[in-house]
Amino acid sequence: MRQVSPVITRSLRNLCSLRLRRTFTTRSALFSSSIDDSQFTTLGDTSDVERDQFFKYTWGTWLKNDEAEKSKRYTPFAIGGINEIIRRLRDQSSKDQSSHVVSLASLSEGKNNRIYLAELDDGSEYILRIPYPLDWSRDARKARIQSEVATMDFLRKKWGMLIPEVISWCPTADNPLEREYILMEFISPKYQSKNFENLMQSWDPMGSTVLQRATVLKVIVLLMDKILATRFSAFGSLYFTEDVSPDLQNKLPYEGEEDKELIDRWRIGPTVEKKFWQLGVHDAGVIDRGPWYTPSDYLLATATAHVTAYTNLLKDPAVASSELGSYLPTWIATYRQYATLTPALIPSDVQADSDILSPRLHHPDLNPMNVLVDRSGNDPNEPFASAYLLDWEGSAIKPFLFHGAPDFIHYRGYKIYKKEEIEDYDSLPPEQKAQIDYMIAATSNQFSFEFMIKHSFPTLINAYSPRAKLVTEPYNVAMTTDYDYHPLEITDLRETLIKSKHWSAVTDNMLVSPVNFTEEEIEKQAKDAETWELTLSKLPFYSTKGWVPQDMFEKYVKEGKLVKNDKGEYILRS
């Protein structure tokens, strides 16, 4: 039986040792609710009404349930606690001088976290990240922070990947900030005398040349080289060894580690994939979150997690009597059909130990917005000297077949490679030309990405074959369908399951779907699809679940394009 190294265990515990002290300093600090709107307060003055604005969500408005959505993103914390954390860090580093925070600025209000920039009196700068409460349970927030920090640590120490260093963190609110947090180094534009910028500044999916777009895609593929370098022993998420249950602490996360300082540092525990925790069921053990040791077990869990969650939701009388409750039996039945399909998502001619089914680390938000690149390179063909990858929240170890292309280039539409393929292109109306131009660019971007994958990961390229895209589509839809915005969204998954009946015809019987539908069910689906399409046409900003950037929202309200209805919700004026 392999034992956990006591040295490693102590070092990991130190990362959250701050939870033992709750003493605040009383120095004054400058903080701002935006870069151009600064306010003063005293760190210990919790009665200052102005400071409350510092914690409120301001970057957008939801067309319905705006107040409730913003309350889920309200992030009050004990501002004075930041100095206690800094003091502890300096004490641990054996530095003689003491330091304190002189300013705390709100930098970003993201999808899952609020980002602050803390500046110290010695010029040091740190990023403080506070997670939104959202609908996450404490256990969910705890697991996601534990796993994210461990994943970043793994890639830095194992593969030397450029990732901001985590300085301090705590996955519970038992610390001087009284909130879960991660404190990490700030990669400023002139970090280490380099010339860093966001890779998004170089990414134009349509306007730039193919070569320019390929330069950006090459950075993404080079980052994937280290993300995918390890073939793990199970499917789930990475944690520090002391953060998984005792029964998992003796199971190595991968084979062949020879570094004694690393061999007992990490383990694989329950997945922190979003859908496994955001289904309204938070009790440990109710939903199977892994780890799993076969691809088929993982896939089945993506179905049973939904069935369990929706079945439990129906036990609530308030839900059962609501509009959602009337749809939930359909959701349950559809995910049970998806469960029946999951064995067929692994093609019979693909061996269970093949590379494309192997457990590989997946970054769920791999896109240029999360990449900082150094522009110091002198070679015009290699303009980026180095790249930092940010935001590892929700990273999980999944069968590579089900990673798919990064969302920012994932294209499911009809492929067009050049204008000459379209008859009378020059005579088409401008809006049709624009649509075709988009399809050409999207086709080109995905082709360039897959071409690079083929050369960088030749044993993994079959995960992007036409047949692979067929079998991964039900998985993709099942893991992105949400019941809480509109209950008719389940129509998309049912449509995908019905389409699977055509697999045998288009693959010469190499793929056969075990899912069956009666003629009556198919007719009902056709009617529901029409209703859903009509409903979508009346749902503005559906892709963002009704969220509108604040400047756009204010502009549309001023112009009269958005008006309130009798329910207090905003709708597009017809």
Automatic annotation (TrEMBL):
One of its GO terms (cellular component) is mitochondrion. Keywords: Mitochondrion, Transit peptide. Transmembrane segments: none annotated. InterPro entries: Kinase-like_dom_sf, Mito_inheritance_9. It is found in: Mitochondrion. Belongs to the AIM9 family. This is Altered inheritance of mitochondria protein 9, mitochondrial. It comes from Lipomyces starkeyi NRRL Y-11557.
